Amino acid sequence: MRDDAAGVEEKNLGELVRECGRNRDLCGGRRLHARIRGSSIHAQSLYLANLLVEMYGKCRSPRDARSVHDSIPCPNSFSGNLMIQAYVENGEVEEARRIFDAMAERNAVTWNSLAAAYARRGDVAEAKKIKKSMPQWDVYLGTTMITLYTRHGRIHDARAIFDSIPQQNIVIWNAMVAGYAKRGNLDDARAMFWRMPQHDVVSWNVMITANVERGEIREAKRIFDGMPERDVIPWTVIVVANAESGDVARARSVFLRMPQHDVVSWTAMIRGFAEEGHVDDAMAMFDSAAERSVVSWTAMIEGLATAGDLNRAVEMFSLMPKWDSIAWNAMITVFSQSGRVDDAQSFFHSMPSRNIVSWNALIAVYAQSRQVDDATAAISRAPQLDVISWNAMITVHGLVGDAVAAKAVFDSMPQANLISWNAMISSFAQAGLIDEASTAFDRMPQRNVISWTSIAAGFAQSGLVAQAKHAFQSMPERNWITWTAVVAAFAQSGHLGEARDLLARIPHPDVKPWAEMATAYARNGHGKVALELLKPMELLGIPPDEATCVNILSACRHVGLVEEGRQCFLYMLEDRCVAPHFEIYCSMVDLLARAGQLPQAEELIQSMPYLPDDTTWGALLGGARIHSDIQCGLRAAWSAFEAHPENPGPYILMANILLE
């Protein structure tokens, strides 16, 4: 009876250890380890020891994993494989090799793990040596090698592995097709797909997914229509593809025709509606879902938060049947994006357990609000750090213009990735250190579209027109973010001609670069030209959004372009898609008052569809002071007193008017 109870307890402890590994909860894992170590029954359990090795590896603590491994009296090959995996997952391949060399017996997993590790870090020669030394070649290693070679861009080596396998089964074929597809070689992927001696549902799904990832939705649909039989995966991929591309109507059409739905398809529809701003449709889909995952819940929470309904987002979080680390972390991110740092902190401190993702979310909160000291303190308190943590610190120093501190963090990183390099280049560029940004760009081991965008925009912001154009023209690929960033950089640095030239060449017009252009014209005193841009935007099918009009009005207000500001305001009043909100009315009042048009400003306050507050009356009072209109100032001050009696600002301003 005691043995049965001990067995049940051992199994339960094992599940808890696995949970800590899945959540990367190092503190929780160490507490469990101490509990196991203190147990006379479980301290010598090989089963629990192996799980602890695996858990510590996943929690980025290979030293603890090695300590457990070395304490096992008679480790088996499974113990050695887990230790190799722990080192490999943490980038310590040479330590993994030492374990490999010391193992008394090895199996296919042992050989495959080490060969894959060398291939993953790009050491092809060593991976090939291990492959040749294997007592028996298996399909798993071939598939693994093909996958890893293609992931690192070594498609020719992957093909050589494929060609060297004497008996190519459908798994190997699928790996090679997927390899071509993931490297963007769709033509080669298609050619190999049609050469396959047979197809299974995985083959078809690989091709559909490959086309979707390259934006070839129509081709994906054509392949989908040609499938002899379908499981839920291709249906779901097509639903997700349409939803993520913004075509929610087509996604819904496919969804309704699905013979059966899984949680992924339900979640895709919920997320699709939420991201497109159709929160009511998303909620209706959520309420109808036959099954929901934590992703479904978090998609709905994020959709409500994006729509500005943060209270309902918090309420939905409270209704979740189970809170896991994903849900808690999502709420911290939601508060961060809404600028509610205190709420994000409160949620973080309320978490029953925190993993590295939680700490990174908190660090990101501080980074986005430019709270360098708090971000640094969080970094120092975190039980473990990963590259995301370090990248957040580089970003926050860059945002406040401290490129020296950003460089110090970058230099102290155990291992920098592409995001680290991009953050460093951006930090240099934002601080005006374009030579340092250019040097870092030249030293990068690899680049992506963000790297090119950062350096091109940096040159443009620094007024180095020739270098900016050269970088832009040298880009291997561009997206709408690239076009927007470079147009904005030229415009903000006063090079309006270059910005306008780029604007005219954008292949797929989008509202953001046009908004940047219009705002830049207004800031530089060309309010009339800024307003003239609104009409071609409509003709291109990208009508100005609220942010565009607000930016133009704000720019007109700062440089005193009264008539242009009035026209922008009237455009919003008359327009089809932009309804002026309270802050826009306040900006217009401020513009009129500063320009001395106090009667018009006062009339606008009286006629606006909102109840004026002390800020509105304060704008009028400020204008009255500038233009020494005591009567208008008294009326504005009295109204401000009534709105907020506890605010001393109007009293002080009115006293200054009377004294002057």
How would you describe this structure to a colleague?
The chain is mostly helical. Helix content is 75%, strand content 0%. It has 42 helices and no strands. The longest helix is centred in the N-terminal third of the chain and has 22 residues, at 2-23. The model has no long low-confidence stretch (mean pLDDT 79).
Task: Summarize, please.
This protein is an all-alpha fold and 660 residues long. 75% of the residues lie in helices and 0% in strands.
Structural class: mainly alpha
Major sheet: size, sense and barrel closure?
none
Number of strands: 0
Q: What gross morphology would you assign?
A: globular
Amino- and carboxy-terminal Cα gap: 94 Å
Number of helices: 42
Helix content: over 70%
Radius of gyration (Å) = 30 Å
Low-confidence stretches: none
Mean pLDDT: 79
% residues in beta strands: under 5%
Task: State the assembly state of the protein chains.
Answer: single chain
How do the strands and helices of this protein lay out in sequence?
Layout: H1 2-23, H2 26-37, H3 46-58, H4 62-71, H5 77-89, H6 93-102, H7 108-120, H8 124-133, H9 139-151, H10 155-164, H11 170-182, H12 186-195, H13 201-213, H14 217-226, H15 232-244, H16 248-257, H17 263-275, H18 279-288, H19 294-306, H20 310-319, H21 325-337, H22 341-350, H23 356-368, H24 372-381, H25 387-399, H26 403-412, H27 418-430, H28 434-443, H29 449-461, H30 465-474, H31 480-492, H32 496-505, H33 511-523, H34 527-532, H35 534-539, H36 546-559, H37 562-574, H38 582-594, H39 598-607, H40 614-626, H41 630-643, H42 649-659
